[in-house]
Amino acid sequence: MGEPHPATVLNVNDDDANRYLVNRLLSLAGYNVVEAATGMGALLMAQQHRPDVIILDVKLPDISGYEVCERLRANPQTAAMAVLHTSATFVTSDKKVRGLDGGADAYLTQPFEGAELIATVKSLLRLRHAEQVARQRANALAEMDRRKDEFLAMLGHELRNPLAAIMTAIGILERRPTSDDKEARMRGIIQRQTNHLARLVDDLLDVSRITRDKVELRPGSVDLVPVLRQVLQIVQPMADSRGLGLDVSLPSGPLWLQADATRLEQVFTNLLDNAIKYTDAGGVHLRAEQEGVGGAAQAVVRVKDSGIGIPPEVLPHIFELFAQADTSLERSRGGLGIGLTLVRKLIQLHGGEVTARSNGPGHGSEFVVKLPLDHTMGKSAPARDAVDLRRGRRVLVVEDNSDARQAMRDLLELWGHQVAVAPDGLQGVALAMAQPPELALVDIGLPGLDGYRVAQTLRAQVGNGIRLVAMTGYGSPHGRDQALRAGFDRHLVKPVKPDELDRILSEL
Ligand code: ADP
């Protein structure tokens, strides 16, 4: 493999005769030669000519060759240049060491043979070339990785919209009684699989965040107990379908945390999901309790199963991205290998820790989550003025996706509301001004006037009597703050689950 030609060599020496000699040797060998007689001159030439190799005499009249080398290394533009130190006859080995430690790539003691010099320059060029190739490869990989992350994020977004519409539609179907067993079964399948799909999409979106350290929390005062109950509701059908018992032990009182409820739900859904998925017989235990007192008090949640267990060699890596114990081809329980990475990251962001235990294959697994308790929260949050928004209200839905709009309308009508709908922000505002609703559900990503502007306009024109709920895609981590600033009372992340909407309406 030949080095890129013609390479440029900067020859730095204050001894004119010596410099001339080396210049000639280099020229004869076919290199472009530039020269300098001082240390400062060398730095200047290095900037200007971007040499591939610098032959740098250690003893210079102004700053020493060592210092020149250090300065070259400190400047990103010159850092990658190969430096060959040269020095006069008598050099102790500690000086050589100092030069090499200071960042030089090679050392030659004068007088040296011409052939030795050229061979050393050649070898440095080869090294440099290899480094360049490696760097380019690393850059290309990083770029591909970044694009992959972007692609995953975009894919997740695109998948969310259709999912949102499907989930709302399912919510409606579910509320309609059926006496047909088969239909009920089919509905069950659709619902479970859609929920599963929604979780995969969530995970997919999160993975690009984790890799870029962009996972953010939206913390508030949260009682962990209802969060766990909610999660149990989600996973119960899956446990039933696998014929597994879910044994639950929750404390009678609350476990207050400063936490992001949605994220906690995600954590425990993942853990319980896994426990069920990786267990064929027996059951899954969920136990939550308080341990310790005062400032050291923490909520401890154990998810234990009697399943396939985790081999000891896999256990230390189980929380790493894409880690999977089962690498067999069929991977019948298949997932993406993202869940546990997310779990750990989210728990860490909450100031907690998660550990995994297993007595090995066939002996079940246990995951233990510890979260600091928020001891400032003694009582439940004060209830705001109690208006029941759950029945018979005037509701406006502003949503540009027609399926999602229709499904939301059907759902709200089913709950007994009078519903008006608008496909974009301008029409939404016009409708609201003509007949002010009591509640407006507003998508943020609207054509023309976006959801934030809709909220600002409604607050300005219609006033504070109206309750505003934002519905956003998953994109912006600041979504919630921005929504609250724009005047929204609440913020929901799509796909909006009917239960969640019901809860929000009851809270408002
Ligand atoms: P996924 O389940 O999507 O593969 P996770 O990150 O949730 O990804 O889990 C990573 C791996 O850890 C799984 O593939 C599985 O091998 C192992 N694992 C997780 N939970 C359990 C469990 N409760 N029992 C046995 N193995 C588990």
Automatic annotation (TrEMBL):
Reaction(s) catalysed (UniProt annotation): ATP + protein L-histidine = ADP + protein N-phospho-L-histidine
Record-annotated membrane-spanning stretches: none
Secreted is among the record's keywords: no
Protein name: histidine kinase
Organism of provenance: Myxococcus xanthus (strain DK1622)
InterPro entries in the cross-refs: CheY-like_superfamily, HATPase_C_sf, HATPase_dom, His_kinase_dom, HisK_dim/P_dom, HisK_dim/P_sf, Sig_transdc_His_kin-like_C, Sig_transdc_resp-reg_receiver
One term of GO molecular function: phosphorelay sensor kinase activity
Domain Histidine kinase: 154-375
EC number: 2.7.13.3
Residues modified to 4-aspartylphosphate: 57, 443
SMART domains on file: HATPase_c (SM00387), HisKA (SM00388), REC (SM00448)
Record key words, sorted: Kinase, Phosphoprotein, Transferase
